[in-house]
Automatic annotation (TrEMBL):
Keywords: DNA-binding. GO terms for molecular function: DNA binding. Residues 5-91 form the Putative DNA-binding domain. InterPro entries: DUF2063, DUF2063_N_sf, NGO1945-like_C. Pfam families: DUF2063, NGO1945_C. This is DNA-binding domain-containing protein. Residues 143-237 form the NGO1945-like C-terminal domain. It comes from Rheinheimera baltica.
Amino acid sequence: MQFQQIQHAFINHIKDPEGMPIPEGVADSRMAVYRELFFNNVQGFVSSAFPVLKSLYSEVHWLALVRHFFKNHQCTSPYFLDIAEHFLQYLQQSYKITEQDPEFLLELAHYEWVELYLATKPLKVLETPLLPEQVNQQPLALSALALVLVYHVAMHQISVDFKPAVGEPEHCYLLYRNSEDDVKFVAINQLTALLLQTLQQMPGVALDTLVQQLVPLLPQFNTAQLMQGAQSILQDFATKGVLVSFQE
């Protein structure tokens, strides 16, 4: 047997010990060490990245879910962060949800992955936070370490004791990493989410121009009301370090 064939047989058995035979000439006791090592590493990475999701499963069902991922998904990187992203992709693209899974499986997995993503994302360019009094004076930009997210479940309320039903209304969040490198979330209403999403799409916009973009989208408010509300909201987020000086 060629080395490449042995290598493939080794990998196939590690991923699917029940369905694939042990490579020829290798003792089961030796393979058992590798089977346990590889799976436990992946299981540990996934469990660390998705702690709330894990808490909603029995130990047996959680291990079965991770085993299914380990067996069926082709990971292209051994790094912890990449394995977490691969697990999310697997759930979104390949996994068939069962009665053992929470109804909000995909949204919760995404929310927890975003927390990890923001916690570890490197900044390519050093950002300068805006002061609240600069909101009216400076071109505005949302920090690269901030994301506006919309889900059909109140993510921050999910626990072993509370599993909300999926439905309306939409639940909007701003997740961001602060100056102490802690990831924080703010539950926001749909109007605030629209304001921040518009800002995210128009980095460098001035406050008055930003408000003008909102006027046709929110006909129930006049320009003065929108200006007052937008200024107050953005000043609050400036104190959190979410607004930064625009850089070309």
